[in-house]
Amino acid sequence: MKLNARWLTAAVSALLTVGGVAIIQAGQAAKVDVTGAWVFTVTSEAGTTNPAVTLKQDGDTITGHYSSQLFGEADLAGTVEGQTIAFTVNAMIEGMKIELKYDGTIEGNTSMKGTLSAGDLGGGAFTATRK
């Protein structure tokens, strides 16, 4: 009886160890890396624009470049936490500084969607796909 109890304890322990490693590996495989070129579609009261965004991810930190016909060229900075992305673009429009805040959800490895806040200029919604 003691032999069976020891064998059962060892078997359960081994299964928990293997299962725990599999869960950890699955969590690591699910990490998102948004590094690369993205095409955004931003819809607001002012209409629809398609800024090009290049992102570089280092851990939870993102940096990058933003290019649009309306706001021109600007750098960006933000974070990725799980499936959530947030970044800010400090742009200029007609000599006025404007802060564009993007908050969204990453969907898979090739798309994201969310909202844009542009201060006094209002806000909107965005979708993005990886180039």
Strand order of the largest sheet: 1-3-4-5-6-7-8-9
Oligomer: single chain
How many discrete structural domains?
2
Beginning-to-end CA distance, first to last residue: 63 Å
* Sheet/helix structural class: alpha+beta
Summed up, the helix count is: 1
Beta-strand portion reads over 45%
CATH architecture level-2 label of the largest domain: Beta Barrel
The unreliable regions are 14-18, 20-29
Rg, Å, rounded: 22 Å
Helix content: 10-25%
CATH topology of the largest domain: Lipocalin
Total DSSP E strands: 9
What overall form do the CA principal axes indicate? Answer: globular
What is the CATH top level name of the largest domain? Mainly Beta
Structural write-up:
By secondary structure, the protein is an alpha+beta fold. It has two domains: 1-30; 36-130, Lipocalin (Beta Barrel). Helices cover 21% and strands 56% of the residues. The protein has one helix and nine strands. The chain has one helix at residues 2-29; strands spanning 36-44, 47-49, 52-58, 61-68, 72-81, 84-93, 96-107, 111-117, 123-130. Strands 1-3-4-5-6-7-8-9 form an eight-stranded antiparallel beta barrel. β6 and β7 form a beta hairpin. The longest helix has 28 residues, at 2-29. 18% of the residues are buried. The model is unreliable at 14-18 and 20-29 (pLDDT under 50).
Summarize the structure.
With 131 residues, this protein is of the alpha+beta class. The chain has one helix and nine strands; from the N terminus they run αβββββββββ. An eight-stranded antiparallel beta barrel has the order 1-3-4-5-6-7-8-9.
